[in-house]
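From the pipeline queue, job 12 of 40. The input is one protein chain; the requested action is below.

Action: predict structure.
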Amino acid sequence: MAALAVVVAPAAWAFGSVWSRRLPMPAGLMTPATQMLSAGVMMMALSLALGERMADAVPPRAMVSFVYLVVFGSLVAFSAYGYLLKHARPALATSYAYVNPAVAVLLGVVFAGETLGPMTWGAMSAILVAVMLLARGKR
């Protein structure tokens, strides 16, 4: 099931991106808000259908992580993405998908004391070089 989810999730994102171009979407930040609310409702329904329940209280560290994701992963990131879609080439705007893992790894180093091996440094370097090449591309 996990492998299927890994394959279906990006396909669903691509389908939704293409389909949303043909739908009447709200203006401004209401578009990502509608997308996030719709996804949240669908995920809640799936969670209830699968019988998932919260067994214990949410630890404070998890709540801080949740708030971080809401503020930076949703509000700031979607605003920046929307701005880039309007003011930059689509290839550059979608480069967030490559940069996010590198940022997550660096945050793990800074806040969780994780260590990086040679493969990780090589992968992050390749990602950043690719994004720089995208940024230098046709204008």
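Job complete. The chain has a mean pLDDT of 82.
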